[in-house]
Amino acid sequence: MLISNLHSPRNKASPTTSDGDIDVEYMSVSPSQLPGATRRPHICFVAPQTWPVLSGDANIEFVGGAEVQQSILARLLARSGYRVSMICFDYGQPQRVVVDGVTVIRCYPIDAGIPLLRFVHPRLTGMWRALREVDADIYYQRSAAMLTAVVAGFCRRYGKHSIYAGASDSDFVPGHQMIRYRRDRWLFERGLANVDAVIVQNEAQQRDCLANYGRSSIFIPSCYDLPADASPGAGEFVLWVANMRPGKRPERFLELARLLPQRRFVMVGGVGGNEPADIAYFAAIRRAAEALPNVEFSGFLPLSKIEAYFDRARVVVNTSTFEGMPNVFLQAWARGVPALAFIDVGARLAGKPVYRVAESDTAAAEEIERLFADDIYRVRAAARSREYFAATHASSEVLATYRRVFDDLAQGNRQ
Predict the structure, then answer these.
(1) Residue 205, phi then psi, degrees to nearest 5
(2) Domain that holds residue 242
(3) Region 357-368: what's the mean pLDDT?
(4) Last residue of a domain, one of 174, 193, 219
(5) Which of 61-65, 73-77, 102-106, 333-337 shows the lowest per-residue confidence on average (mean pLDDT)?
(6) Rounded to whole angstroms, how far apart are CA atoms 408 and 99?
(7) Looking at the structure, do residues 268 and 383 belong to the same domain, yes or no?
(8) Which of 10, 167, 184, 245 is deepest in the core (most CB within 10 A)?
(9) Closest to 209 in 3D by CA, of 226, 192, 194, 224
(10) Cβ burial, residue 112 (10 Å; 0-12/13-18/19+)
């Protein structure tokens, strides 16, 4: 990973950090030295919380699925010759910093401003300033939020192009979006109506977007690149990876561990929010996990550390109530690790489901045990997972689809 900032020798707010075996040093960059534009459009990811994932900063305890996907896409586009920018919160990084060819512009600290008043300043004013500073051709924003309206409004005002990308099935179900305030939900829906293109992760999102919001959309599967040092084996344990919040239902994973005391279970994930209730929920799950002798509770880990757990997993379990296409499935399937969930994300190979959708805890426990006890069954499930991943989520196919979308928008074609 290469991270550089082009103005001063060493920024005290962003010292040399370490993420496993990766040493990251910040150097100085001037705007004139930023990665130059090509004939392809300049893409900006409006991704406020993505800095910890993109930079690999292990000191910031946050890894979100939408942020992982935006980091993957940004790097992929930069490697393909696009000029790529990203707008992130101020976590102490330099004002402008280049990470693997992606120019990151900071906007404002996540908790800056006076309650009630901060909606306008610094949130609206700071984001608007950053959008203008980037001056991209296409602005890409992911996850339901009032920010969707800000990006759409900015692009309409200045003749730019906007993309909204769904991150969860709940994004397209009125009243179910993970948005706290009614005002912000209204703004999101206004933004969804006004963006130039909507990208969805699966066919269910595509149907709901059209049925509930009257918007056609473009289905582009999520993508993932298997790390060069990945070394998957036969699998030692049952793995669960997510931020700890009620919608992810980590307590259901613990129930599976109780049903299968002879198997080893591993939980990876940090606090799902900044409110006292979020911290209390995380603490309760940790206590429950530590009370079970067959459960290893790691808490938060940076993405680079999490990858090694997939190499050693026998099966990956998702217990969420809503998903789009979980990154944990891609991390598993690329390695030939079967998945199990309580919801269907629409993954099909030759018309058949790629993974087992369990209707109950008992059914899920039976599937887990079979993947441990029946080698022929496990090998077939592993082969099906790899084949589906290669056919659907390989980065080359995803990039080709994004190129067509970008080209259409650059020609003024609203999707």
Answers:
(1) -60, -40
(2) 237-392
(3) 97
(4) 219
(5) 61-65
(6) 28
(7) yes
(8) 167
(9) 192
(10) middle
Does some domain include residue 399?
no
> What is the spatial distance between Cα 95 and Cα 375, in angstroms, rounded to a whole number?
53
Question: Do residue 207 and residue 241 come from a single domain?
Answer: no
Q: Which of 394, 392, 328, 329 is nearest to 355 (CA)?
A: 329
Answer yes or no: do 270 and 207 share one domain: no
CATH number of the domain at 209, please: 3.40.50.2000
What is the domain count for the chain? 2
Tell me if the pTM is above 0.70.
yes
Give per-residue burial for 268-307: e unless 16+ CB within 10 Å, then b.
bbbbbeeeeebeebbeebbebbeeeeebebeebbbbbbbb
Q: How far apart are CA 315 and CA 339, in angstroms?
A: 6
Residues 66 and 142 in one domain: yes
Average pLDDT (374-380) is 96
Q: Is the pLDDT of residue 205 over 90?
A: yes
Percent of the chain whose predicted confidence (pLDDT) is above 90: 74
Look up tokens 């992911």; give the residue.
142
